[in-house]
Fold this protein.
Amino acid sequence: MTQPPYARIAGELRRRIQSGELGPGDRVPSTRAITQRWGVAMATATKALTTLRQEGLVRAVPGVGTVVADTAPTTRSDASPAKDPAVRTRIVHAAIALADAEGTAGLTMRRVAAELGMPTMSLYRHVANKEQLIGLMVDAAFAGEPLPTRPPEGWRARLELSAAIQRRLYRAHPWLAPALNLSRPLLAPHGMRHIEWALAALDGLGLDADTRMHAAVTLFGYVRGQAIDAEPEARATRSSGITGEQWMAAQQDRMAALLAQGRLPHFASAAGEAALSSTSLYEFGLACLLDGIAARITTVRPPVTAN
């Protein structure tokens, strides 16, 4: 029985994939390329690729096209593992370096590949897309400064240490805080260890599980929120050449004119005495947050005695 055109095209591409001629991550002919090569209609070309997709041999990559799936079988004896951990680590570290320097807006698979001297399509053998890459970057960033194996004494000191480490990470990687989203959290194991650390610190203090979880996530969200402006500030500094401090200094005359109108008397009075900075705002907010947790504690943990 004569095969329909879409089946013959799918069969030819299937053979090339299974023989290893097309390896995981390699791009397969587009629908337009299929119509031109085999002289078939667009609907036939689409059906051929749909057949391969249903068989799990290919997958669509936004902005790239249809590529051979990582799980596609191959008989090529020299084929490399589709997800070599060492190669993936190099990709992630290169992406972090780019994001540290320029933010994530211009971070693309093509740009990362260029930094590594690799074909763009080869990256897709190790990382599915930009979304997965950013998730791996987030986890690697948190892994770069792990929590200590021996925590300090006292729940408050433990939470302060976790917050300090997070803040240092956000300062070192301005893109990190915006990459996180508490509404749709990334499953980043090294980042989640900060939640685990906080839960352990609050255990045995008379707080129920719901309160402890809310406290742990609120602390995580507070530190992230304090750092959320880091990337826009870095981007503004790069584009304008003016630092945040320089920008604030340039607004002093306008601020003085506004306050001189007398419509904001309390603001004007307090502004004359207050000394606001990113550090003072962070420390004040953190102290208030921890004071609020302390007010809910009903059990005093007995001190640890040496043997």
